[in-house]
Amino acid sequence: MTRLLAILLCTVPVPALTHPHIFIDTGVDIILDESGALSHLKITWTYDEYYSLLITEELKIDQDFDGVLTEEDIARLTGFDMNWVPGFNGDLVALLDEALLDLSGPQQPTATLKDGRITTTHVRQVEATPSLAGHILSLRAYDETYYTAYDVTLPVKIKPASICTLDKIAPDIDGELEQMRQMLLTINADADLEENEIPLIGAKFATEIRVSCPAS
C-alpha cells in the first residue's frame, strides 16, 4: 500500500511535496504484566531491499553476499537504527484514551538479514505501567514528514493472550489524497510549501492499532 501511495504522491504537481524514501514493514508485540497492565512494546521493523543494501554496504557487512552474517557482522548491524536524537519518539505514538503515553528509549536491540532485507527489533518500556481495563490503547507507527513509510504488515500480538480485542484500522487513503489534491490546487506550483503552512502528512496515512479491554 505504501509503495503505491508513494507513486501517487509523486504525481501531485508540487515539486517540493515529500514522499517516502524508506519503506518499513512493521509489527508490534503488546506486552502485559501479570496484572494485565501494559508493560512493554516490542517493535519489529523490516526494511526494504534498497535501504537494506545501502546499510550493509555502509557498515561493510556480508561482504561475500551470501546472506549469512558473521558474529562481527551482527555486532555491527545490531543497533544501527537505535541512535536516536533526544526527543525522538521512535516514530511511534501511543495513546491511552487519547492521553499520550511516555515510552522509554529503545532497549534490547536485535538485527538479522534475510532475503536481502534487514529486520530489527527493539523493546520500549511503558512508563507508569497503565492498566488497560476499561480503556482503549491506540498505537500508530509513522514518520510525520513521510520520509519513512511504515506499513503494518507484520504480526501484531498481545502477549500473553488476553480478553482484550485488537483491531487494525487502515487509513482512508483515497479520501486523504483527495483532500491533499484539493489543497494543493489552491497553491501556485512555484510556491514555498512551508510558507503556505502545508501540514505534515505522515499521520494521515498511518494504520491505527487499537486495543480495547473490558472493565474489570
From TrEMBL:
Superkingdom, natural source:
Bacteria
Task: Give a Pfam family name.
Answer: DUF1007
Q: What is this protein called?
A: DUF1007 family protein
InterPro entries cross-referenced by the UniProt entry: DUF1007 (IPR010412)
